[in-house]
Amino acid sequence: DMNVCDNFLWSYLIDKVFSKDPKPRNLDQLRQAITEEFNNIPQKMIAAACRGTAERCNQLIEMEGHSIQIRVVDRR
């Protein structure tokens, strides 16, 4: 999970889309809700997620490819 999509984007979108009321009821509504939430992600949040990816890559290099400890941040 070293890339931004795996580490941040998908879980963020799932949280946002399925916390809506009413929840999407079909594929078109789901697609629309995902698109809306994606377009509303604050630029600062995207930048922070990208910085986090760079930090994890640097840690992985330092650990010569061995496991690294990932810091979990509550996005709420």
Task: Map the helices and strands.
Blueprint: H1 4-18, H2 27-39, H3 43-62
Helix pairs in contact: 1-2
GO molecular function: nucleic acid binding
Molecular structure report:
The protein has 76 residues and is mostly helical. The protein has one domain. The chain has helices at residues 4-18, 27-39, 43-62. The chain starts with a helix and ends in a 14-residue tail after the last helix. InterPro entries: RNaseH_sf. One of its GO terms (molecular function) is nucleic acid binding.
* Elements, N to C (H/E): HHH
Helix content: 55-70%
Please, what is the average pLDDT? Answer: 83
The total beta strand count reads: 0
Low-confidence stretches: none
Shape: elongated
Sum this structure up briefly.
One of its GO terms (molecular function) is nucleic acid binding. The chain is elongated and about 45 Å long.
Features:
mainly alpha; 76 residues; elongated; 63% helix
